[in-house]
Amino acid sequence: MRTPAFPNPVAVFVPRQRSFIFNTWQDLASHKGGIALGNTFGQEFSQYAAAHLRLEESGTADSNFRKLGLGRIDYFVSGLFTGEAWLARHGRSAQIVAMRPFLAEDKNYYAFSKFSPCTRHLDAFEARLKELVANKTNIAMLNASLQDIAVKLDSATLGRK
């Protein structure tokens, strides 16, 4: 598909009580961070992180958020939706926040196997997806999928409502 279905921002999560100024990647250099094992957030950030940041890889978002709560790391880099969902599920949304601006902005796309019988509907799917994105129904759908965990995102800022 050519049209991105959803925004997929990457956020820096910090304990609300130990937040710090974050405007650029350089602001992370004096802090110890965490990242889930195997996660990458673009080649440019990966190169910068390898050269300038103290990032600890840990198995999961769960272990990283626990380390963040214990003060063993100062921040955790994660996809915004993954992080917000974890915080809501564990009742930690008041203690840990996703800082702005986002570390990176990515997009999620739909993909179909070349061998799928659905490929004959790609043009219609693409046209409908464009409509949903244009009228922000995609964000409403995302919010609907997050409502079970009490996360609702503003369509303009992707911040908590």
Features of the shown structure:
single chain; 161 residues; alpha/beta; D-Maltodextrin-Binding Protein, domain 2; six-stranded mixed β-sheet; 5 helices; 33% helix; globular; ABC-type amino acid transport substrate-binding protein
Q: What would you note in describing this structure?
A:
The protein is α/β, with parallel strands linked by helices and 161 residues long. It starts with 5 loop residues before the first strand and ends in a 15-residue tail after the last helix. It has a single domain, classed as 3-Layer(aba) Sandwich (D-Maltodextrin-Binding Protein, domain 2), CATH 3.40.190.10. The chain has five helices and six strands, in the order E-E-H-E-H-E-H-E-E-H-H. The mean pLDDT is 89. Strands 1, 2, 3, 4, 5 and 6 form a six-stranded mixed β-sheet that branches. It has helices at 43-52, 61-70, 80-89, 122-134, 137-146; strands spanning 6-15, 32-36, 54-58, 75-79, 96-98, 104-108. It comes from Duganella violaceipulchra.
